[in-house]
Amino acid sequence: MTTIRLDNVSRSFGAVRAVDHVSATIEEGRLFTLLGPSGCGKTTLLRMIAGFCDVEAGSIWFGERRIDALPAHHRNTGMVFQNYAIFPNLTVAGNVAYGLRARKVDPADIRARVEKALERVRLPGYGSRWPHELSGGQLQRVAIARVLVIEPAVLLFDEPLSNLDAQLRTQMRVEIRQLQQSLGLTTIYVTHDQEEALAISDRIAILRSGKIEQVGSPQEIYQRPNTAFVAEFLGGANLLPGTIGTFDGEKTEVASCGTTILVDRKPGSAGQEVFVSIRPEALRLANGSDGPVLRAKLVMREFLGQIQRLHAALPDGTQIRVSTLGGAHLPATTGADLALAYDPAQIIVYPRS
Amino acid sequence: MKAFRYTIVFGAFALLALFLLYPLSLVLDASLRVNGTGAVTFANYARIFASKYYVHSVGNSLLAAALASVGATLIATPLAFCLARIEMPGKAVLLTLATLPLVLPSFVAAYALVLLFGHAGVVTTAFRAIGIPMGPIYGLTGITIVFLLTLYPYVLLPALAGFKAIDISIEEAARNLGGSRVHAFRTVLLPVAMPAVLAGALLVFIEALENFGVPVVLAEDRPFLAVDIFKLFAGEADNNPAAAGALSVLLIAGAALVLLVQRRYLAKRRFATNARAAPPPVPLPRRWRVLAASYSWGIVLLSLLPFIAVLFISFLHFRGPVLTWQLGLSNYFSLLEGSYRPLYNTLFLATVTAILATVVGAPIGYLVTRHRDPLSAGLDVIGMIPFAVSGTVLAIGFIIAFNSGVLVLTGGWLILVIAYTVRKLPFCIRSSSAIVHQIEPSLEEASINLGVSPLRTFVTLTVPLMASGLIGGMILVWITAASELSSTIVLYTSRWQTMTVRMYHFLEGGEGAGSASAAAAILILFTAAPLLLIQRRVRRQDAAIL
Lengths: 353, 546
What we know:
The complex is a heterodimer of chains A (353) and B (546).
Chain A: E1 4-13, E2 16-26, E3 31-35, H1 42-50, E4 57-62, E5 65-66, E6 77-80, H2 92-102, H3 107-120, H4 136-148, E7 154-158, H5 166-183, E8 186-191, H6 194-200, E9 203-208, E10 211-216, H7 218-223, H8 228-233, E11 238-247, E12 251-256, E13 259-264, E14 273-278, E15 284-285, E16 293-303, E17 307-313, E18 319-325, E19 337-341, E20 348-351
Parallel strand pairs in A: 3-8, 3-9, 6-7, 7-8
Antiparallel strand pairs in A: 1-2, 1-4, 4-5, 9-10, 11-12, 11-14, 12-13, 14-20, 15-19, 16-17, 16-19, 17-18
Chain B: H1 2-31, H2 43-50, H3 52-85, H4 91-99, H5 106-117, H6 122-129, H7 140-151, H8 153-164, H9 168-176, H10 181-210, H11 213-218, H12 225-234, H13 241-269, H14 286-313, E1 316-319, E2 322-327, H15 330-338, H16 341-370, H17 374-384, H18 391-402, H19 414-438, H20 441-449, H21 454-482, H22 488-491, H23 499-509, H24 513-533, H25 535-545
């Protein structure tokens, strides 16, 4: 059980600030996800915690112990690699026993612990198999068993599911989450997949250009993004440029894309340039009831099963995305007029710098 | 496409049957008959195993080959790791220099050893003058040293590729699980690279077993298999083709067995490690890096030292067999005084061989890579046979097969070119197959899909794509053909003497050490210069044969 604390951690590669004064505390037993686009510094940060990347400035603590100067093999972290990094010269059992042998555990003990770890990842009896005989999902389980067996202080996952097919990915992430919760291990999980991050995490940190943009629970981050970047990255919000207009004491008019959008309260002074963030699911086809409406023309319809995604053009031609339920009845013809109803309370305005 | 394929397959089978399997079967046949008469007998084999001399001959050859492969592994594996993972100055140059011994004629290195440490060697006499006696370099010691220095790249190149192919995450996983760097090297990196290392070691064994030029220079009167076969077949005093045949069969059987182990067992044991990029250098304190650099440069320079010494000595004046310290071109004058013919012959034979071997080998390489069916698999296996057959033995087969009857080739240049071509064929097939591997099949499919016929696609798309690689392979064939001694020495006639034959005669006669050194220097130039000119392209090809 370990609390991880990052204190003003920085690292540059040449002129590039890969990690820029990052501070965060990961409470013990939590699953903490580093989420961001490629090149945002999330993997570098993880590798700094594992000890494969030197810390230039700042410090990293496991509980009361500062670990950033320790060699990688003395940190007692269990890392699951993107490509699994299964030793091809060892059997499954040899792979799982590797960390125990390095710790000079009694051989009689090793066998029992290896078998128990393989059972835990639902690969009992696979010990004598060779890595090349296993599927991608099985290799992934071996990689997890291999780190669980050493009872690490923290678990580190580096995009562990990115090499699996879609169905296996959803299945494995549930297993990883259940294992992590039942063992109560403090875990840092790196991914660029927002759905995966939302599904699995206790807390998420959104990274952008080496800096943490926002930290919070999945719901907090999704429902109250602090910045336009987070809103767009998480959930694919429509970001529309606009200018703040008049405030009627309750709602403010924002001129945007050849039309007017109403938002709650007063997000800024009149004439200020802003981004209006509208989530695709905050828009719905108006059914004649009250409330403000956006006029748009249907450009394209994507049927995705559970939902349908509509691409619609606002009066000035700007395209926006609208999510509706898959079963909803829609006009089929391209160019049809759409009336999109929305709740001003769900629309967020960010200053445009 | 089918007609095109069958033409290549059957053409290749016919060529290999006529110029490889048929001569070899005649050697086998000769070993099973009483000399001169037709009766079938095992007496030739019985006599070999009864003779102390020939048992020694087999034993010495096996011992030298075994020592060379163990030694080469011990030297080259750490060198490979240094070159793969440790930062050091001049690494690119070092890598080029390290591949040089693969193509430099090994008997020239043997000759350099004689010049330096022989009975009248520079170093021997200098030491004797100040009162330090030097042991003889001849026999097993000298032969093993030369094998070590010239054959270690056979281990170095695959081991280097092996270490570079290990993804860094494998090593990081080992350290993440609590292993130190040394522990990770011992338990993961080395075992994963090991099959490649062993495959290289077995190649060293085969090459050393078959080598004729090194023992012929350094054995003196000690028994060595490759030399004894030649003496029994071509020697004036103890001519005995049947015994030569029996020894040849033993030699081929030994080499073929090792080759079989190498291809069947080790090739399949290689681990797939899917490195996305070459692993980064190991961060080491300065003094360790200096140590690694000294070791690497030391080994490579030591292996080139004999050749450098020969180049230098070729510009010194000899008085009879005695070396003086006067600089001059007298050796070159006396070498070329007789005639320029051997020089022309060498250039001509090497050029024709390079073209012919490429024209024959490239389509075979293409076929065995693109079309995996029983026919091309068979072609792949037969195409590898010359690797297990020493040049002397193949040449003896050629003499028996083409001295009389329907097809008479002995006495001309064609027989030399054909023998060289057969000898270089495994290399040509491997290297063109390696090139084809790098060309996406979808490129050809795209061309066919766009309406170009398969044959036209091969000619207008595949061949140009292969061209740059083929030229590199062609130059390597040219180099090794120019320095070919073992088959030439059996097949040449006075009209078709080569530089290697001239050098051999100078050495054998004991006279003309000066001319021999000049001939050796010219051979070094012939081999090293083209290789250095096209070094980048060729390094990829070296790896192909391994």
